[in-house]
Write a structure and sequence with these properties.
By secondary structure, this protein is mainly alpha-helical. The protein has helices spanning 3-43, 48-78. The protein is built from two helices and no strands.
Length: 80
């Protein structure tokens, strides 16, 4: 194995770890947001529209961290 092969392997390993670890937080956060929103809708059905809108906005903001880790992984693969 040459030095270039080791660098290529490390680059792909780092990109995979970046996506794997970077997706855990958003997944947990979105699951908790959906869980609590559904709990609130079950308790107060008249607030469904407001809770749904707030949940979707919160999940979109939470998903942005997953997108950031995707961007970092792509940079690791194609630039580094």
């Amino acid at each position: 194995m040459s030095g270039a092969d080791i660098i290529a392997a490390a680059k792909y390993l780092a990109a995979g770890l970046c996506m794997g670890l970077g997706a855990i937080g958003p997944a947990i956060g979105e699951g908790m947001a959906a869980s609590h929103a559904l709990d609130g809708m079950a308790r107060q059905p008249e607030m469904e529209a407001s809770l749904l809108r707030t949940m979707i906005i919160g999940q979109a903001i939470t998903e942005s961290t997953g997108i950031y880790s995707l961007v970092v992984a792509i940079i690791l693969i194609f630039v580094a």
